[in-house]
Here is the input.
Amino acid sequence: MTTYQYQKLTESDAIRLILLQPSTDLDSPLDCTLLNTSLTRCHINFSDKYTALSYVWGDPARSRLIKVNNEAMYITASLDSALRHLRDRHRPRLIWADAICIDQDDPEERNQQVNQMGWVYRQANHTFIYLGEGTPETTLFLETLHSKSTVDWKPPHLRRGSIERVRDVFGSEVEVAARAWIVGRPWFKRVWILQELVLSQDPWIQCGTSATRWACFYSHVFNISPKRLLKPEERIVHSMGRLHFQHRSLEWAKNETAEYETAENETPRFAERLYDLLKSRKGFGVADPRDMLFANIGLVGHATEHENKLLHLIMVDYQKNEAKVYSDLARYLLKSLDFRIFALLDPNEKRCESEAPSWAPDWVSGPPSQYSRFSDELKY
Here is the structure.
């Protein structure tokens, strides 16, 4: 079988989508067609509605085969597992997954695609957060959470079984074990996930083939907080859920022009929002240190015309090395704000291998920020 070769994307908002073929057998080979389309067409055409995938790459070795347009492509084991569990049993499914839909060996394409990645998640009908194959406890827990969310609209005579099942699971060892497994997954410490979650219209959590809406899981964690102190891993879920809710609320408020304009006028400057976000995420997991900037910049909204003059320093550009990205980011923050970035420098900090100047903060090295450090005042 010949190796798949990417065709160049030509439109300014072009993307690729995976048309994943169905199978009733989890172990059957993955087979798909890679379609060229655009964000504009996905927005106006019902047939181009897709599901975005959020996952952890894990081992970067591309060791698993997927057939793409009848040609061979090799992907990571984590993506292979995600696609197998997302694959529908009977119908083709449109999916966006970065490792396949972006030519990872083309720096120019990566720049263009990463710049619009926020819109990929905004446009997706659903985003599935794949955490792994899960355990028997996570299967029962997620299925129960999902059934609990449907109890309220059921007619009274159909509620009894659902309520009894919820009572059997919640408050049991199953709940404790499943929640601990979920919040302990590496996904929650991956730098890209905040953008992927916050910008998504309808995010879901999935372990194996069991899934429930993010809102259901967030509500579950939120309801624990009045009863006891949240564990560090639970606090990150709480903070992320709050940011997702804040962003969705602001999106809805855009329909009320006057209110939205007032909110915009009260938001901190672009550089301040970026600094607060980077500071709260410092030390989180990332495979490419440059992504500490590139994965977060799409979350901080729009810059004013005056601020645009310095944005060239922090634009997504994978042709820059890590040292250049970090030194340009430091220059941008110094020119836009003040000397506050120097407070992040630690002479005892073990810096990652980089030729960045000593006055440029290393956003990867050092102990991770406390889970509760997501800025409560972060505005979009």
In short: Residues 151-164, 258-267, 368-380 have pLDDT under 50 and may be disordered. Strands lie at 14-20, 30-38, 51-54, 64-68, 71-75, 93-96, 126-130, 203-207, 210-213.
